[in-house]
């Protein structure tokens, strides 16, 4: 059965995963340091680069395995808010978005889909988490769904108990302020079986698997 | 550049990775307990089974990423020794060998290749590690080469300094006797940068990356 998964989700020691305001210069809203150790090229597998295969890299590389669609919040797609005044904006990633699958962008403002040659397409949707998930599964060809962030988006799916698996990464820095996955999520851990492992780089990887219910 | 990788290579606390004699009933030569925690279905990725995604599973699933060919010793292919008196033997795996790529089987005894519908093929070769690697790379379509074991085979490639990466797994059991990767390999660790991580299941994962030389 297809699952709903979160991968490579970075969290600071004080619990933040993004800054408050996304701008062109600050795509993580000022929390860019969370991604300082992250090499985005590693998501596509162990063979794409002649760099050491560390624990961090091996785990990063599971991001795309068996994934047929991503759901992301509008802030991950770009810095615009409100009506789409700039339809030339096609995301942060240029002509080669790394997703290589359909991507559902949650927004209250409709817009026509965007298609790229590498298999990536963006589909704009105004929907609840449940309805967005059903829509995304229709695009996933039976494969798993990744919830791509940012933290507010993951939090909504978590609150709706729609997440089967989360790979969280505690990064040993403090941010002081920002957006947290955990706001209003007291006791969320009770629904999961949790394992953690420390890597030589100083980050801690957490594997949250939703406990199967009767 | 394509690399030479070892994955999911199990080692007991006393250093053994297989028993001495392969038989039909004992494909690991009596060291089958080393594989008790190993679910072979996990090698194909995170999506193939609705089981928790643990650290062990995530790392197991990197086995096939970017691999274009495997090289294995004859004992991994089957229990026969000497001349191929039973050419009906097509490996331990039935009609669906898990490899899904060409596989080079090292043997002093020639035999015609075997092809399966799922992309697996077995090619029998009598060659030094260097020559076997060159032959395998010709079948790999530019992808990485996996050295699949058993321990004597990995040891030969290690002694020839042909291994770029090893994912070793220390299993907390003792075997008392068997075949070891380490025989005659004193100081081999000096050629590698080594990281290790303990999983909740009690195994220890080791990542050996060959240190790049000037």
TrEMBL record, chains A, B:
Domain Bacterial bifunctional deaminase-reductase C-terminal span(s) in chain numbering: 8-195
TM ranges: none
InterPro entries listed in its UniProt record: DHFR-like_dom_sf, RibDG_C, Riboflavin_Biosynth_HTPR
Gene3D superfamilies registered for this protein in UniProt: Dihydrofolate Reductase, subunit A
Signal peptide: none
Alphabetical list of PANTHER family matching this protein: BIFUNCTIONAL DEAMINASE-REDUCTASE DOMAIN PROTEIN, DIHYDROFOLATE REDUCTASE FAMILY PROTEIN (AFU_ORTHOLOGUE AFUA_8G06820)
Protein name: Dihydrofolate reductase family protein
């Amino acid at each position: 059965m297809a699952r709903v998964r979160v991968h490579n989700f970075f969290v600071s020691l004080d619990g933040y995963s993004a800054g408050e305001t996304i701008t062109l210069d600050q795509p993580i809203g000022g929390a860019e340091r969370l991604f300082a150790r992250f090499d985005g090229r590693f998501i596509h597998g162990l063979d794409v680069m002649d760099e050491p295969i560390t624990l961090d890299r091996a785990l990063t590389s599971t991001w795309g395995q068996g994934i047929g669609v991503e759901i992301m919040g509008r802030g991950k797609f770009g810095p615009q808010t409100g009506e789409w005044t700039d339809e030339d904006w096609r995301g942060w990633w240029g002509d080669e978005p790394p997703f290589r699958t359909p991507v559902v962008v949650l927004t209250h403002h409709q817009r026509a889909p965007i298609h790229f040659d590498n298999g990536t397409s963006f589909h704009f949707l105004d929907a609840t988490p449940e309805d967005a998930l059903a829509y995304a599964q229709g695009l996933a060809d039976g494969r798993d769904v990744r919830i791509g962030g940012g933290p507010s988006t993951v939090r909504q799916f978590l609150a709706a108990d729609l997440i089967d698996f989360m790979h969280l990464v505690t990064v040993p820095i403090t941010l002081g302020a920002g957006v947290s996955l955990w706001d209003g999520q007291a006791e969320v851990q009770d629904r999961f079986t949790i394992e953690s492992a420390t890597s030589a780089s100083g980050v801690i990887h957490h594997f949250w698997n939703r406990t199967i219910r009767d």
